[in-house]
Design brief:
Distance between the termini: 39 Å
CATH architecture of the largest domain: 3-Layer(aba) Sandwich
Strand content: 15-25%
Number of helices: 14
CATH topology of the largest domain: Aspartate Aminotransferase, domain 2
CATH class of the largest domain: Alpha Beta
Largest sheet: 7 strands, mixed
Shape: globular
CATH superfamily of the largest domain: Type I PLP-dependent aspartate aminotransferase-like (Major domain)
Length: about 425
């Protein structure tokens, strides 16, 4: 059973104030870089986004005027750095729709966030014979940690199938839910297919079966409004570099009552209250999960990125990217021998495809010669490729600064691929 329209997340509708894309593009220095005399058409946002000058300035300002360690010093610089770091935590909390700052744990990214849950929650609550449920469209970072947990505990990994459009089969999901299901871990937006999953529906069903729900939100937070309290999920993971922030910084949202009972992921400074050779007393959450000197400038940069997203308007961004998705889909269908991989009725701005005339790596290389940056490969989602019977795809993925003209340049490049290899 595919997802009915009434169960889906509402997509942007016409009539919203348009995004001033040309004004936005002025904030991103890298978009002024020339390749063979032309600005780069950057269509690889699912891999990482470019950074606005406001984020770059916030990081520069920290290192040039505010640099010190956090939570450790009584001097002026340390207090400033600590305030900025904790302000960033508050900004993240508001951005994902919780008012509780202690539910926000800073990590290195979505991958570490999911590993943290698998290690700290999973090892405490999953035992031999239990089941963990994921989907066929997951990124490797939402597969491998659960495989490792199953190997360590004797639990079993179950997989929700998808249809030929790249949509979850929800009737199969419901069949797979049993009293043995302890964890359901699901992607919000697929990085390879663009599919937007009905997270609240999944959460409600999983909770009714007694399971907790982990959501991989890496591809959702840059493109869609996210409110974790409305979704009802137990954990939500995201990456700063996908949402116009720095690399190496991410977030795990976790319900306070769950974090309170979880054991630390790593040991070291700042995750303790006291240490003797006989016993260590752990700090309260979220600090018990943030061992060592954190990625201070990354958190500050992420806070600046959130400020930028708020200033632009996430709903305006979503509407603009939806327009690009519709336009890009129609333009790609004009290309001979092109097959779209991922045709869900509700998608984010991701277009994966193959060409009959050339391997995706050759497609990516020729597009690069035209100054168009796309991704070619399995996108850390090899089971998706296996499901659709392809070794790899070419993927164009959109951000707030992309334009229809850049899509036209990509399509012109694809015609060139067919001319060369056809």
């Amino acid at each position: 059973m595919a997802v009915s329209p009434k169960e889906r997340i509402a997509m942007p509708v016409a009539g919203r104030p348009p995004l001033d894309v040309e004004r936005i593009r002025q904030d991103f220095p890298v978009l002024r870089v020339l390749q063979r005399g032309r600005p780069i058409a950057y269509l690889d946002n699912a891999a990482t986004s470019q950074k606005p000058q406001q984020v770059i300035d916030a990081i520069y300002r920290y290192y040039s005027e505010q640099n010190a360690n956090v939570h450790r010093g009584v001097h002026y610089l340390s207090q400033q750095a600590t305030d900025l770091y904790e302000q960033a935590r508050s900004k993240v909390a508001k951005f994902v729709g919780t008012t509780v700052g202690c539910e926000i744990v800073f990590t290195r990214g979505t991958t570490e966030s999911i590993n943290l849950v698998a290690h700290s929650y999973g090892r405490q609550h999953v035992k031999s014979g239990d089941e963990i449920l994921i989907s066929h469209m997951e990124h490797h970072s939402n597969i491998v940690p659960w495989q490792m947990l199953c190997e360590q505990t004797g639990a079993h990994l179950k997989v929700i199938p998808i249809n030929d459009d790249g949509e979850l089969l929800l009737d199969e999901f419901e069949k797979l839910l049993t009293p043995r299901t302890k964890i359901v871990s699901i992607v919000h937006v697929s990085n390879a297919l663009g599919t937007i999953n009905p997270v609240k529906y999944i959460v409600d069903k999983a909770h009714a079966a007694g399971a907790v729900v982990v959501v991989d939100g890496a591809q959702a937070t840059p493109h869609l409004p996210v409110t974790v309290k409305e979704l009802g999920c137990d954990f939500y993971a995201l990456s700063g570099h996908k949402m116009y922030g720095p690399t190496g910084i991410g977030v795990l949202y976790g319900r306070a009552e769950l974090l309170e009972r979880m054991q630390p992921f790593q040991g070291g400074g700042d995750m303790i209250l006291s240490v003797t050779f006989e016993k260590t007393t752990y700090n309260h959450h979220p600090f018990r999960f943030e061992a060592g000197t954190p990625h201070i400038e990354g958190a500050i940069g992420l806070g600046a990125a959130i400020d930028y997203l708020h200033a632009v308007g996430i709903e305006k961004i979503a509407a603009h990217e939806h327009d690009l998705l519709e336009y890009g889909t129609q333009r790609l269908l004009e290309v001979d021998g092109l097959r779209l991989i991922g045709t869900a009725r509700v998608k984010a701005g991701v277009l994966g495809f193959t060409l009959a005339s050339a391997h995706p790596h050759d497609v990516g290389q020729i597009l690069d010669d035209q100054g168009v940056a796309v991704r070619a490969g399995h996108h850390c989602a090899q089971p998706v490729m296996q499901r659709f019977g392809v070794p790899a795809t070419t993927r164009a993925s959109f951000g707030m600064y992309n334009t229809r003209e850049e899509i036209d340049r990509m399509v012109d490049g694809l015609h060139e691929v067919n001319r060369i290899f056809g």
